[in-house]
Every structure is written in structure tokens, then in C-alpha cells.
What we know:
This protein is about 35% helix and about 15% strand. It has about 300 residues and is α/β, with parallel strands linked by helices. Helix 9 links the parallel strand 8 (about 210-215) and strand 9.
Amino acid sequence: MSPDKLCTTSVRKAVVVVKPDWLRVKAPQWQRVGSVKEILRDLALNTVCEEASCPNIGECFSVGTATFLIMGPACTRACPYCDIDFEKKPQALDPTEPTRLAEAVRRLDLNHVVITSVNRDDLPDGGASQFRHCIEAVRTVSPKTTIEVLIPDLCANWEALEAILAAQPEVLNHNTETVPRLYRRVRPQGNYQRSLELLQRSRELAPWVYTKSGIMVGLGETDAEVREVMQDLRRVDCDILTIGQYLQPSSKHLAINSFVTPEQFDAWREWGKSLGFLQIVSSPLTRSSYHAEQVQELMKQYPRSRK
């Protein structure tokens, strides 16, 4: 199947998108999924796995992993691809959230934890202080757990970025999301150059931290545009890249332009290796935090010392 064509079936003049076979996910072990959900509910925590309708929720929950969504679930931006709620009014930060998150890490016995957030443009520091408190809380109860933070662009508040990095997470992740030409449509409140600058400043401020970014495909980008983004990310010395297929959460969200073939994802992965990425995860079901724990192997192969 050509990556430039949609798989569609016409039904009474409506267009129904039919997912190709390579986007089918394995049935999860629901007993383990239920156990993870029970812990999350008991501690009143949000996960991006649930809030953003991630297709890998069954697989991740079944092995006891989750990406925690802090300061939410309401977001101050309205990205048309994202399933996180932007209509609710953001609430004041909960000072108990870091402690509750750390307790979840302890109960789930996580070797690697991913902490992300909604955009909180209403806060002077974009929520940097809450990220810092969460990192510190996890360090206290589970010092051997490696920590990855997936952060928003902080409205270019570089002092806020420095505050997050000062807490010394192992991985600083910020998604570029799409190619520059599609930013106005896909990420209207974002800025491509600002995202690149955030990654570059992270490298300069904390060279011991592994930097990471991710993009979605299937929104109308070309192969050449994807490769240009990959080159831009290497120019700012980004270590890790994820590339995955965009899936439309509902009819109200951006429509899928194409289903990209596994062969194309393989081609990007191999080319990314030649560019010098230390790690690149590229497949239809890849998401920012998919198999994020693999960074521990990267850390063994390319060790970096902290201050």
C-alpha cells in the first residue's frame, strides 16, 4: 500500500477510515491492566495513556508501566490532533501530587518513569516547579528509578527550563510533533524554532541529560520534510527520536492524511542511525513514551556523568 493513500470505505456518502493490519494491537492482560488502574485511581493520578487515548495502553499497563500526566487533565492549548481536554478550566496546582506520584512509582516498582504534563500557559513558570517537585519526590522513595520528563515548550521561559534540568532527570523529552509547514494547522500555538531552541538549550545547560524528541506522521508531510526535521534535531544534538503514526482520536480532530507503511518507518530508522541518533524508535504504533525504559540500555552504552 502506498503511504500517500488512505485506506477508506464509503458508507452512505460518509468516509470510514479502515486501519491497516499493521496498526492492530495485541489484546492486553486485563488482570494486570486493572491492577495498574486501581493504583492510579487510589492515588487520584492521571496518565497520558488514558487522557490521550494511546493505542498502547493495554501493552504498557499489562507490564506495569505508565506515563504520568501532571497538572491536569485540563490543558491551556487546543491542539487539534490531541485528545486531552482543553475546554475545562485548569485548576490550581496540587501540592500533594508529587508525593502521590512517587507513591505510585513505589507501588508499581518502576525501573523507569515518564512524567509529562498538559500545557499550563497560565502559570508563570509553565509548571516547571511541579516537574521539579515530582522528580525530587520520586528520587526520595525510589532512588534507582530513572526519570524521563516530557515537557511543553514553557513559552520560551528558559529559567523555567533550567529549574527542571537542575533536578537532574535522566532524559529531557520535548516533542517537535510535526514538520514546520504543518505547524499552523497541527500545532497552532506552538513554534518549531522554539522547540528546537529548547532542545539545544537543554544540551547546553545539562550536557549529562539525554535529550529526546518525537514526531507524528500521516498528517500530510513528505518524506523529505521528515528527513529535514531529523537533520534539524541532530543539529541541536538531540540523542533520541520517536516517529509514529498519527491516529485520529475522534471525528472532531484532525483527519488522517495517510497511513505510512512499516517499510517507510524502517527506512527512517536506518537513516536516523546514520545521522547519529543514539536511539531511534520508528514504527506505526510508536509514541513518545513507548518502550521508554529502553533508555537504560542506552545509558549503559553511552554513559554520562552528572555534575
